C-alpha cells in the first residue's frame, strides 16, 4: 500500500510537526512550503494523500487543489486542507474545489493522524470507475 503523503504549509514548523506525527505512524512524508512545489511533488510521487495550507507562496493551497483536481491522473487523490482560515467562504471554496476534508489550526496531532488515515482508507476502498457507452 502507498504510504506517501505530501504536506505543504508556509510554516516550516507545521510541516515538521505533521511530518513527525505521520512518520511515527509509518507514513513516508515529503514536505514543502510552496504551492507550486507541492503540485510538482504530487505529480512526481502520486501520494496516498495530500495536506495543503490555504495561505502559502506559489498561489496558495486553493490553487494547488485546483491543479491536482484538474489533472485526470491525480483527481482521485484525497486532499485535506489544514489551515488557520476559519471563514465559511474559504471552507466552501475548498470543499467546492474538491477538498475531501478541512481541518483548522491549531490542531491535535493525533486527530490529524486519525483523519488522514480515514481519508486514505476511504480512498482505497472507493470502487473503480466504470464507463459504459
How many distinct helices? 5
Assign the CATH superfamily.
Response regulator
Order of helices and strands: EHEHEHEHEH
Structural class: alpha/beta
Level-1 CATH class name? Alpha Beta
The mean pLDDT is 93
Oligomer: single chain
What is the architecture at the second tier of CATH?
3-Layer(aba) Sandwich
Which characteristics define this entry?
alpha/beta, Rossmann fold, 5 helices, 5 strands
Question: Could you provide a short overview of the structure?
Answer:
Helices cover 45% and strands 17% of the residues. By secondary structure, it is of the alpha/beta class. It has a single domain (4-124), classed as Rossmann fold (3-Layer(aba) Sandwich), CATH 3.40.50.2300.
Describe it for me?
It contains 5 helices and 5 strands; from the N terminus they run βαβαβαβαβα. The protein has a single domain, classed as Response regulator (Rossmann fold, 3-Layer(aba) Sandwich), CATH 3.40.50. Helix 1 crosses helix 5 and helix 2 packs parallel to helix 3. It is globular, with a radius of gyration of 14 Å. It is α/β, with parallel strands linked by helices and 133 residues long. It is 45% helix and 17% strand.
Amino acid at each position: 500500500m502507498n504510504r506517501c503523503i505530501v504536506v505543504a504549509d508556509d510554516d516550516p514548523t507545521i510541516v515538521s510537526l505533521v511530518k513527525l506525527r505521520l512518520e511515527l505512524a509509518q507514513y513516508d512524508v515529503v514536505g514543502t512550503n510552496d504551492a507550486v512545489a507541492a503540485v510538482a511533488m504530487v505529480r512526481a510521487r502520486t501520494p496516498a494523500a495530500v495536506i495543503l495550507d490555504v495561505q502559502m507562496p506559489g498561489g496558495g493551497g486553493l490553487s494547488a487543489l485546483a491543479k491536482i483536481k484538474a489533472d485526470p491522473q491525480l483527481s482521485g487523490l484525497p486532499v485535506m486542507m489544514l489551515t488557520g482560515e476559519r471563514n465559511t467562504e474559504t471552507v466552501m471554496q475548498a470543499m467546492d474545489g474538491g477538498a475531501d476534508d478541512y481541518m483548522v489550526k491549531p490542531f491535535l496531532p493525533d486527530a490529524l493522524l486519525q483523519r488522514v488515515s480515514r481519508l486514505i482508507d476511504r480512498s482505497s476502498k472507493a470502487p473503480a470507475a466504470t464507463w459504459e457507452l
